[in-house]
Amino acid sequence: MSYTATWTRVSGTGETMNRTLAAGLAICALFAVCAVFAGRLSPHDPLAQNLAARLQPPSAVHPMGTDELGRDVLSRMLHAAGVSLTVGLVSVGIATVIGTTLGLIAGFYGGLPDTLIMRAVDIMLCFPVFFLILMVVAFLKPNVFNIMVIIGLTSWPGLARYVRGEVLSLRESEFVRSAVMAGFGAGRLLFVHILPNVLVPVVVTFSLGVGGAILTESALSFLGLGVQPPQPSWGNILLAGKEYIHMAWWLSVFPGLAIFFAVIGFTLSGEGIRQWLNPRERG
Q1: Which of 12, 88, 121, 183 is least buried, going by the fewest C-beta atoms within 10 A?
Q2: CATH topology of domain 65-267
Q3: ω before 229 within 30° of 0 (cis)?
Q4: What is the DSSP annotation of 259-283?
Q5: How far is residue 195's CA from residue 248's CA, in Å, rounded to a whole number?
Q6: What is the DSSP secondary-structure string of 152-215?
Q7: What's the burial of 232, exposed, middle or buried (CB within 10 Å: 0-12/13-18/19+)?
Q8: CA atoms of 177 and 188, how far apart (whole Å)
Q9: pLDDT, tens digit, 9 for 90 and up, residues 187-231
């Protein structure tokens, strides 16, 4: 009875875990294909205007309709996928490198470096991140590069604090103490013995952060402070659709669904990876 119950629990957990990860990766893969092959998949030029065909509803010629300038919404959505994924991956990559590095330094060396880094983290966390981004964007030219850098430079404090906590715990572990007694230098201790053991939360945070970065970029573009027209992004397509929401529902529904599923995809992937890499989640 005990064996059967345990096997059922482990099997059920593994099945849920696999489904979560598979669903997340499938959604992310779909958006990746759309982004990489946007040029081939687009039925029309995303920048081509045709005022005679403005605000046409979805049809065989324009599966997602046209916008206020007669541009094909499907083509713009496909090209916008590349913008959103690039912003998400690059900005979170910047935040991950900064947060992981500072967390390792603070947790391993302690003392003054730890104090300075943690006070910087506390100061950053005092401000709502989105409003901090808005404040910085207001002084810079809004474009894809600046958006990626700004999101990356304002999204690292949480990860830095988490990595620091993990390093403080690992620093007192037996295998690290043995490495210290063996005379290994700080570089080897950090990158060979400690860093591999904090990669699980880093990978999970990266995946979850991409969805958040996509949402942030879309919100900035919706406010007119993100990716600027005529370059398409899901946020500025939504912004254009706001003016015609009562007569052209497709301008709001399709980019809204794209943002929703992109965030869901990366969130499910992060949760699935966390369960897969955590032995306790596997029973």
Answers
A1: 183
A2: MetI-like fold (1.10.3720)
A3: no
A4: HHHHHHHHHHHHHHHHHHH-GGGG-
A5: 51
A6: HHHS-HHHHHHHHHHHHHHHTSHHHHHHHHTT--HHHIIIIIIGGGGHHHHHHHHHHHHHHHHH
A7: buried
A8: 13
A9: 777 777 788 888 888 888 898 899 889 988 888 888 888 888 888
